[in-house]
Amino acid sequence: MSSDRALPVTPVTVLTRGGTTARFDGVRLIVVRGRSTWTVPVRALEYVELTDDGAIRALIAGSADSADHGLGAVVDLRGPNRSAVEAFFGQLSSAVDRTPSAADGHALVRQHVRAAGRAPLSPGLRKGLRVAGLILLHHTALFVFGVIAVGYPWLVLFTVVTTGTLGLAGGLVLWRVGRRCRSLWLLRRRGIGVVGEAVGHVRIWSKGGHWWEFSRMDFVTVDGRRMKGVPSVVTVWSFSDASRGRVELSYDPENPERASRPLTAGFSLRTLILAAPGVALFSGYVATFALFLEV
To answer: 248: burial class by Cβ within 10 Å (0-12, 13-18, 19+)?
Structure first.
């Protein structure tokens, strides 16, 4: 979603299977197994081949007696499917064919062992834990408040778990709708119109539903910045001709990663339909705990 400067000139191919991940950037082969990472320059390889059982076999140049790096004289790599293996092999073999091999490739191999410790949490898991912590804090505060105001701990607990959770869900819906409306207001106020290309999409429930999608758009700003894969604020019908090809859009000059296709009546209606249950759930939440104050 950023400019071309963030994109590598040579594609970095990745192959993962059986606890081993291999990456090749056109210059070096990186192999990761557990806590160990090996960096193998292209010129350290004598040849690579594609075996009959669908594996990539790479031979490190030089005598196997000097292979004290732990990777071995021969590196076997496997992938999740034939297409992934062939794509990786094509990039690696092309580089090996045009690069002279070193006399002792094993001397060029570098190994790095990551210190033992807790495995790093994925960004998605960290975000989920933060949300769970906030929900727990919210429910605990409401429970304590309810018991102090009303008594009847079990009744308060049931109300907090049901109404409190539904109210948070409604609030989340309204927050998302509010962000969307704010983006459209900013684009209406200071957006600059250009012609771009719809090159992909993000579906609504992953964020995808199967019928509506947020287009990913490539375009060039008026000051010459090339933007790649910027998601549109406004969705489009997945099966329409407008989901691909050239598209008129507006972007925020203060934040070019905020951009959108033109607003449509259908999108406005879908946004109102999305907001309706959010309003109902959040209103019920507010009304329930307002009763606690009156009791």
So the answer is: exposed
